[in-house]
């Protein structure tokens, strides 16, 4: 007995001794290891925007066309009431923080006075040839805190005579890129595509030379194209991501303008080695440029797009084209206000905050810092719930509401700063399965097909995962605009 007591005594001394013992700080639970690949700082900021704006504007606005010929006379461009402050105010009221302008579309007409061509605003009657649409937008955005600017410079140029001669045209294009990125301050996103008519001259674009120059001039910019390197196309112009939507993909499997990869673009790849999240581009109207005969989409259509883009781990790029006066039309302004009001109405209240949150387990125990309280706070990125390391499959979150709740939308978000993990999940209300899905990512919104449900116990079960789930936020919401019976 004395020997046993002595052994216990010396073991205690060792544990408590500062040289040999475990300090309090060593006992503090650490975050789980990330699962590669990870987003960059710029990609994280981009994802959190959720909704951004495209502005298709140019000579097509005045010719009532979508694709210009390149032979338009600059004299037709005369937006006598152009007010970029109205554009920015409209975006701000809609909760939009980034506006991407078509600096040059396929017709080759430049909305800034480029020194490399006379096919620009310099040859128009607008402001007696001294106007600069890009500068107008930049100045307006600078006055409005929280609004950033992006640019689209079409690789296909139907006006430029050098088009079709690889070296000469690529040098011309790169020169215009340098103009834009040197002259107009911080550009947050630059947009490239592979659009080209079937009868266009054969032309090789030096995309990777262009991308390298872009990053050299503006290191914090996000580059969009079919193949990234920062943001990928979702594979359609309907604003819909796949029901499975990974931010990870293999860039080496992609090429710009290759229609055979649209399904891969739409879903991503759980084994992808590159973090390349998808952007869903769609127009508020049928066309991309303004046409007098067209009207904005119904609110129900915009909400459908929102749930299938932002609600599927993507960002929504909504095109809102200025009209011939140089303003965003009143009907579009009104529809955007309705859209923002609807989003705020639906997601402004999280019914789960009223309830008790239980979890299958939690990393570090009750006071470890990774508990269920993190699921209903205001940080949807860097505070999160994590189960024990053993629970790579079968972990769960349960929302227990004594009085019962009426809701028709369920929100789940991963802490994507540590990688994307979830492969499969299911949702039960009072023991009945009401929804299931695959990926989650930054945000997964389940708008319930059966409409409003009433329940006391809501359980989210995580089946397959690349590693232990790391969930940053959950929510129960009521969408008064959703009536599946009438739909």
Verbal overview:
It is a single chain. This protein has 11 helices and 18 strands. About 3% of the residues have low confidence. The chain is of the alpha/beta class. The protein is 24% helix and 20% strand. The longest helix has 18 residues. It has an 8-stranded parallel beta barrel with strand order 1-2-3-4-5-6-9-10. A 5-stranded antiparallel beta sheet has the order 11-12-17-14-15, with no helix packed on it. α6 links the parallel β2 and β3.
Global structural class? alpha/beta
Enumerate the spans where pLDDT stays under 50 for 5 or more consecutive residues. Answer: 4-16
**Main sheet characteristics:** 8 strands, parallel, barrel
Q: Strand content of the residues, in percent?
A: 15-25%
Write the layout of secondary structure elements.
Layout: H1 2-16, H2 24-27, H3 41-49, E1 51-55, H4 59-63, H5 84-93, E2 98-104, H6 133-143, E3 148-153, H7 166-183, E4 189-191, H8 207-217, E5 222-225, E6 231-233, E7 248-249, H9 262-267, E8 274-275, E9 278-283, H10 299-307, E10 315-319, H11 330-347, E11 356-359, E12 395-407, E13 409-414, E14 425-429, E15 432-437, E16 444-447, E17 453-462, E18 471-477
Parallel strand pairs: 1-2, 1-10, 2-3, 3-4, 4-5, 5-6, 6-9, 9-10
Antiparallel strand pairs: 7-8, 11-12, 12-17, 13-16, 13-18, 14-15, 14-17
Helix pairs in contact: 5-6, 7-8
Structure at a glance:
It is built from eleven helices and 18 strands. The protein has helices spanning 2-16, 24-27, 41-49, 59-63, 84-93, 133-143, 166-183, 207-217, 262-267, 299-307, 330-347, and strands at residues 51-55, 98-104, 148-153, 189-191, 222-225, 231-233, 248-249, 274-275, 278-283, 315-319, 356-359, 395-407, 409-414, 425-429, 432-437, 444-447, 453-462, 471-477.
């Amino acid at each position: 007995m004395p020997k046993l007591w002595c052994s216990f005594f010396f073991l205690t001394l060792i544990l408590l001794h500062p040289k040999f013992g475990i300090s309090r700080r060593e006992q503090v639970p650490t975050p789980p290891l990330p699962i590669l690949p990870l987003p960059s700082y710029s990609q994280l900021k981009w994802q959190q925007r959720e909704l951004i704006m495209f502005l298709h504007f140019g000579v097509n606005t005045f010719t009532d066309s979508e694709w210009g010929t390149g032979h338009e006379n600059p004299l037709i461009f005369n937006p006598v009431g152009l007010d970029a402050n109205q554009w920015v105010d409209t975006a701000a009221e809609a909760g939009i923080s980034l506006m991407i302008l078509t600096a040059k579309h396929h017709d080759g007409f430049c909305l800034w006075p480029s020194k490399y061509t006379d096919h620009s605003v310099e040859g128009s009657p607008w402001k007696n040839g001294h106007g600069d649409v890009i500068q107008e937008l930049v100045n307006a955005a600078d006055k409005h805190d929280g609004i950033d600017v992006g640019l689209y410079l079409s690789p296909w140029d139907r006006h430029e005579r050098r088009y079709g001669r690889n070296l000469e045209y690529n040098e011309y294009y790169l020169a215009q890129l340098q103009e834009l990125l040197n002259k107009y301050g911080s550009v947050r996103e630059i947009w490239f595509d592979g659009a080209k008519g079937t009868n266009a001259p054969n032309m090789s674009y030096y995309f990777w030379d262009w991308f390298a120059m872009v990053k050299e001039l503006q290191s914090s910019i996000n580059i969009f194209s079919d193949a990234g390197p920062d943001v990928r196309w979702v594979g359609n112009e309907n604003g819909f991501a796949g029901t499975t939507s990974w931010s990870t993909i293999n860039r080496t499997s992609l090429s710009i303008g290759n229609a055979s990869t649209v399904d891969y673009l739409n879903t991503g790849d759980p084994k992808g080695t590159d973090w390349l999240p998808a952007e869903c581009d769609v127009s508020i109207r049928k066309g991309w440029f303004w046409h007098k005969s067209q009207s904005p989409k119904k609110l129900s259509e915009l909400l459908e797009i929102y749930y299938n883009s932002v609600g599927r781990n993507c960002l929504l790029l909504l095109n809102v084209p200025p009209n011939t006066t140089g303003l965003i039309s009143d009907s579009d302004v009104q529809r955007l206000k309705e859209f923002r009001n609807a989003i705020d109405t639906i997601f402004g209240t999280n019914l789960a905050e009223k309830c008790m949150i239980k979890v299958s387990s939690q990393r570090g125990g009750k006071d470890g810092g990774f508990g269920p309280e993190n699921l209903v706070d205001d940080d949807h990125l860097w505070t999160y719930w994590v189960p024990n390391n053993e629970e790579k499959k079968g972990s769960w979150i349960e929302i227990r509401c004594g009085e019962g709740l009426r809701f028709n939308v369920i929100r789940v978000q991963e802490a994507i700063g540590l990688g994307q993990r979830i492969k499969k999940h299911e949702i039960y209300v009072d023991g009945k399965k009401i929804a299931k899905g695959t990926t989650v990512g930054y945000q997964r919104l389940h708008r319930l097909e059966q409409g409003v449900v009433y329940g006391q116990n809501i359980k989210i079960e995580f089946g397959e995962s690349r590693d232990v789930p790391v969930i940053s936020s959950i929510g129960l919401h009521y969408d008064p605009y959703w009536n599946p019976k009438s739909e």
